[in-house]
Design goal:
This protein is α+β, with helices and mostly antiparallel strands and 650 residues long. Helix content is 32%, strand content 21%. It contains 15 helices and 32 strands. The chain has a nine-stranded antiparallel sheet with strand order 1-7-8-9-12-19-16-15-14. It starts with 14 loop residues before the first helix and ends in a 5-residue tail after the last helix.
Length: 650
């Protein structure tokens, strides 16, 4: 396949190792915080961790605040959206009560190789622990995800006074909910707007007091150790919440078993194994389990530049991103995502390959028209806040090669390709490529300006025909192999003639251009050209020279039709690591990967972009494409270093 990663046959995570697993370091990293900051200031993007149930998810800040939560699924309207408007968005906060000393310490980490999150507060009086999770497990073959957030609060030292502020704002902060007390069970919250109706409940035996309009609060002190207090958010109407029995303990245990069982399937070794496992757990969390769709990121409109307009909605399933995730997961022995995802994708485009589009909603929605939410100020004033994504109907040539590469990979590893899939999907894609490969397109970076003859896009047309020819050969359709191979070779000749500039010694961004594009670093990974070919070696060096800043690569440095600046894309730097590895430049690759590893956050999550000057995270978070790039780079480099140490390579 594509990413030429080699599956490790060792490094399986044991339960004993899992008990001590804590991402980058087992040592807790304490951060100094204050109530004022939590209540009134935007957090850094890096201050968040993610919990979820493979249908939706929530961002939990290091200060104990849930600032992003959409119901009932990833791309639904938010009910907590302080991430995008700290005043109007709403949040679910648990934080220390006011004391004479305004500051306190906080730390956050995952409970071993799971997606169960622990946040701790420490002050002069004691230490408080919050366990946050969304129930997610299997009973027989049925996937159980209850649409709940469980917040278990306990005192682990001294005594601790804290405050809970439950302040939802429905439909992206448009509506203040109606609050109803339900006996001694808890509270329900409901609101209706022209676009949607959302209902949720807080299950608690405690009586809260009104706070703000549409919110409730509670001050509480925990004295007894090891006697947790549970607060459970449930989605749905009042009729679902007559029972206060939350089964938190049972759901916590089953959820922990589920994630540890997944971790045990991962075959990981090498110096970056902890962060690779965290990436795998994150990618699994971004799967919409009912269909197998993999979202690009769980957020919308986190900016590529603070105060800028490059703010996009990534809560959808890109064929490109999702397919790359499959390769990354395969590199650590996880192939169960492949069957669900490719089956879902094939069912949508079977007999409709001419209408293949770059992204879909998580249940196959085709129209993802974009609109702005002008009532929200955006993260740190970065507007507009967008929902939907205008790139859904762009013309992007790479999508054909990416899908056929995924199908070829599945065929190669024993799943097989039925003749019907070949006749009514693959052949239609081949025909579409034949008719369109010479046209300009919007490219991988989804430019909203002029279409160009992007070299990267032409490369994927070559991939489409190369993989189609290989599948035809496996099905013994000899005439098709000959015809497809002829056009494939013509495309390659065109790329080598028009896409490589001798005067600068590099593959360029588009035919006739002098600009470079980090996406061309994928060339050796898809086996278009060997990484040790002089043209590729020179491209690597020129990319470092012209697109690098402080060890980070920009996508490109040319006009793309949009105002403003952007950060460096972490994914591109991970592609560089893989290129250096395939080129045999292992010392360079290792040094770069060691540096990049340090730009994950306190729980091992990566953003889309980084400001090369400050190291500040930018863009939607956490980003599947970035984690995929890291996993592929780390696994491939680990294998190469292992071979070198054993004397198999120089």
């Amino acid at each position: 396949m594509v990413l030429q990663s080699q599956q490790s046959q060792e490094g399986k995570i044991s339960l004993e190792e899992g008990k001590h697993f804590n991402d980058k370091s087992p040592a807790k990293k304490w951060k100094t915080l204050s109530r004022k900051r939590i209540l009134n200031e935007y957090k850094e993007i890096s201050d968040y961790a993610l919990i979820g149930d493979q249908k939706t998810c929530a961002l939990v800040g290091v200060g104990g605040s849930i600032d992003w939560f959409c119901i009932p699924r990833f791309d639904s309207p938010s009910v907590f959206g302080a991430l995008l408007d700290i005043g109007k968005g709403g949040s679910f906060r648990i934080l220390p009560s006011e004391t004479r000393k305004k500051e306190f310490l906080s730390t956050q980490y995952y409970d071993g190789p799971t997606n169960i999150l622990i946040t701790e507060f420490k002050n002069d009086f004691g230490q408080l622990r919050i366990v946050d999770f969304m129930p997610c497990f299997k009973v027989e073959r049925a996937m159980i995800s209850t649409g709940e957030i469980h917040r278990r609060v306990s005192c682990i030292e001294g005594s601790f006074k804290f405050e809970i502020l439950f302040d939802p704002r429905m439909d992206y902060g448009k509506a203040i909910p109606k609050i109803t007390r339900v006996g001694t069970t808890g509270y329900t919250f409901s609101a209706k707007t022209p676009e949607t109706r959302q209902e949720l409940a807080l299950i608690t035996p405690f009586e809260f007091k009104p706070a703000n309009k549409g919110g409730i609060s509670l001050n509480l002190e925990i004295i007894e150790k090891d006697k947790p207090v549970d607060f459970v958010l449930r989605t749905g109407g009042i009729e679902l919440h007559h029972s206060g029995n939350t089964f938190t303990e049972a759901k916590l245990n089953k959820t922990k078993e589920y994630w540890i069982s997944f971790a045990q399937k991962c075959k990981i070794s090498g110096k970056w194994k902890d962060l690779v496992l965290r990436s795998a757990l994150l990618l699994k969390l971004l799967v919409y389990s009912p269909t197998g769709a993999i979202i690009a990121a769980p957020t919308t409109s986190l900016p590529e530049e603070i105060g800028g307009i490059r703010n996009w909605d990534y809560r959808y399933s890109w064929i490109r991103d999702s397919s790359f995730v499959l390769w990354a997961m395969h590199s650590i022995g996880i192939d169960d995502l492949e069957t669900d995802y490719l089956g879902w994708l094939t069912s949508i485009f079977f007999m409709l390959a001419e209408n293949l589009q770059v992204m879909l909603g998580v249940t196959g929605e085709r129209d993802l028209s974009e609109k702005s939410l002008n009532h929200l100020e955006g993260y740190r004033g970065s507007s507009p806040v967008r929902v939907g994504n205008g790139a859904w109907n762009q013309f992007q040539l790479d999508v054909y090669g990416i899908l056929l590469d995924a199908l070829y990979f599945s065929n190669k590893h024993g799943k097989g390709i039925p003749r019907e899939i070949y006749d009514y999907l693959i052949k239609l894609i081949v025909k579409t490529v034949e008719e369109n490969w010479e046209k300009p397109d919007c490219g991988i970076w989804e430019v909203r300006g002029e279409r160009k003859q992007f070299v990267y896009s032409k490369m994927w047309c070559w991939v489409a025909l190369d993989r189609a020819a290989r599948i035809a050969d496996s099905l013994q359709i000899k005439q098709d192999v000959s015809e497809i191979s002829g056009l494939r070779d013509k495309i390659k000749e065109t790329i080598l003639e028009k896409g490589y500039d001798d005067s600068i010694g590099a593959f360029v961004r588009s035919f006739g251009s002098k600009d470079l594009d980090s996406a061309n670093l994928l060339m050796p990974q898809v086996r278009f050209i060997d990484a040790k070919d002089p043209r590729m070696l020179s491209t690597i060096d020129q990319t470092i020279k012209r697109l690098n800043e402080n060890g980070f690569l920009y996508r490109y440095r040319s006009d793309d039709g949009l105002k403003g600046e952007e950060g460096a894309f972490l994914m591109c730097s991970f592609w560089l690591v893989t290129c250096l590895t395939l080129a045999g430049r292992l010392d360079e690759a290792e040094k770069l990967l060691d540096k990049l590893e340090g730009f994950s956050n306190h729980v091992g999550l990566f953003s889309e972009e980084v400001n090369p000057k400050t190291g500040q995270m930018l863009g939607n978070f956490p980003q599947a494409f970035t984690h995929m790039g890291f996993m592929t780079a780390a696994v491939g480099l680990s294998e190469a270093l292992k071979k070198r140490s054993s004397g198999q390579t120089k």
